[in-house]
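A.,

Following up on our hallway conversation. Structure tokens first:
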């Protein structure tokens, strides 16, 4: 009997050990998943053309997703279909060449793809799935949602293979050079969204090929990676994927830098740098600058019912009602200390200061209670807005605005109804109309308005470098943050000269 017990125990242990050793990528019954997400398929490419199969696809022999190309509208090579899927947080797409055939699939079709005999090949810098027939693709559903990513061009340029074959939106892009009178879309046109150049590609067969180009566009399209030395391409699928840019009024004042975390205490040490894009006499044309600090303990808590006019510990206002500035000139608002980097540092009172308040002992100009920390340097987003008025209400729209920070936690926006939050304007980071749906989105973190800078480094001035066109009211080069490390003897020139600061152009 004892031998029988030992035999049974050994049998159970052996079965358990063998079961635990089975390859189980899907944690389901110890079987290998025959389906590979597209990021797995693309990962199989190592620099040379590769035959796809279970050996390099984690045991899989098929993939699939949602069709995002539209062969009926003419702006796609004949016999080509583009399919995209999202898995484990990765959205990837595949450009599939089927030969000289008519593609029956339309956007929103859900398909599976048999990868047997297929090859992932580089064609002039672009990855293509080749070697399969139309019969290898099986439609399983229709009308599925097509995920669109709103992507600045610099991300596409930095990681083209992550975005190739996906459906993206590039917002507020202007043509370079500007279109000639009557110029049409057909061919390759360079577009710039302020973060880099891409090529908008239009086949002669596209349904919009002969339409006259506007000054600029927000465009939805398929990403095709270019060869070395060429711009990566955006292929709109139809004329409905192209939205002409609205005309904008240039902002007379731009936010160009700020100090959030000076050396030592923040008390009465922080400041904001701005630039005038035209000559301004503030006694004749008053403006205001409002800051917001959304630290979790600041009151009132939660989404700000009155937006920039919330006051208390959430928003603080500086009225600009005297003095003059010239076009292209830097000027400052902030603490009365007028020091570059906190107590004991360089005196920069010789800079052009338009308004100073000892915010740790004095309330703001009509908005804001006494605060030890004007500009947030951790946690929920902080922000700065400029208004063409000194009377700021919940419905006031700024002329320039920027946010920085990380988590929101409901501190800056609530969908309501009614929606509650900080109003934005059309800038290099924000759009008052959703670039995809054209729905109104007037507040920060509403819709696509999620852009923000990171927190500046400690004891560093946040220099915001970009190029602003005062004729079009658009950023030719969007603002990026450069940390200018400060010490006790840093001169004013360190934050006003050199590279990486904002400039204006006609």
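Then the amino acids I'd put at each of the 506 positions:
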């Amino acid at each position: 009997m004892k031998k029988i017990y030992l035999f049974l125990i050994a049998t159970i242990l052996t079965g358990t050990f063998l079961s635990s050793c089975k390859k189980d990528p899907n944690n389901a019954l110890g079987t290998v998943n025959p389906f590979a997400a597209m990021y797995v398929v693309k990962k199989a490419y190592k620099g040379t053309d590769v035959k796809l199969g279970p050996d390099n696809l984690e045991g899989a022999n098929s993939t699939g997703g949602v069709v995002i190309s539209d062969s009926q509208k003419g702006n796609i090579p004949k016999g080509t279909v583009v399919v995209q899927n999202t898995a484990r947080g990765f959205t990837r797409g595949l450009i599939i060449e089927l030969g000289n055939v008519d593609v029956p699939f339309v956007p929103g079709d859900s398909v599976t793809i048999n990868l047997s005999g297929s090859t992932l090949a580089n064609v002039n810098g672009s990855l293509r799935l080749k070697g399969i027939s139309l019969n290898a693709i099986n439609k399983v559903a229709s009308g599925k949602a097509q995920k669109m990513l709103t992507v600045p061009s610099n991300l596409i340029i930095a990681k083209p293979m992550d975005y190739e074959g996906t459906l993206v939106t590039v917002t507020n892009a202007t043509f370079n050079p500007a279109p000639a009178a009557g110029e049409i879309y057909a061919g390759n046109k360079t577009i710039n969204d302020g973060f880099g150049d891409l090529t908008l590609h239009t086949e002669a067969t596209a349904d919009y090929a002969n339409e006259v180009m506007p000054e600029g566009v927000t465009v939805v399209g398929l990403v095709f990676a270019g060869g070395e030395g060429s711009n990566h391409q955006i292929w709109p699928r139809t004329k409905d994927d192209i939205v002409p840019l609205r005309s904008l009024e240039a902002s007379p004042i731009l936010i160009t830098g700020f100090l959030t975390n000076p050396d030592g205490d923040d008390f009465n040490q922080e400041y904001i740098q701005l630039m005038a894009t035209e000559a301004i006499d503030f006694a004749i044309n008053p403006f205001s600058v409002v800051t917001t600090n959304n630290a979790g303990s600041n009151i009132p808590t939660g989404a700000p019912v009155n937006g920039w006019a919330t006051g208390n510990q959430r928003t603080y206002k500086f009225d600009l009602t005297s003095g003059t500035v010239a076009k292209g000139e830097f000027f400052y608002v902030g603490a009365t200390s007028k020091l570059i980097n906190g107590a004991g540092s360089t005196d920069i009172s010789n800079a052009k200061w338009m308004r100073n308040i000892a915010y740790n002992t004095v309330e703001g100009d009509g908005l804001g209670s006494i605060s030890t920390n004007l500009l947030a340097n951790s946690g929920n987003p902080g922000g700065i807005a400029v208004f063409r008025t000194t009377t700021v209400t919940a419905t006031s729209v700024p002329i320039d605005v920027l946010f920085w920070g990380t988590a929101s936690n409901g501190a800056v926006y609530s969908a309501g109804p009614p929606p509650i939050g900080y109003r934005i304007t059309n800038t290099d980071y924000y759009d008052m109309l959703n670039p995809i749906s054209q729905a109104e989105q007037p507040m920060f973190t509403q819709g696509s308005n999620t852009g923000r800078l990171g927190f500046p480094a400690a004891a560093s001035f946040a220099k915001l470098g970009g190029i602003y066109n005062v004729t079009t009211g658009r950023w030719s080069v969007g603002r990026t943050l450069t940390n200018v490390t400060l010490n006790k003897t840093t001169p004013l020139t360190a934050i006003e000269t050199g590279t990486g600061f904002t400039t204006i152009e006609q």
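Residues 2-21 form the longest helix (20 residues). Curious whether your intuition agrees with the design.

B.
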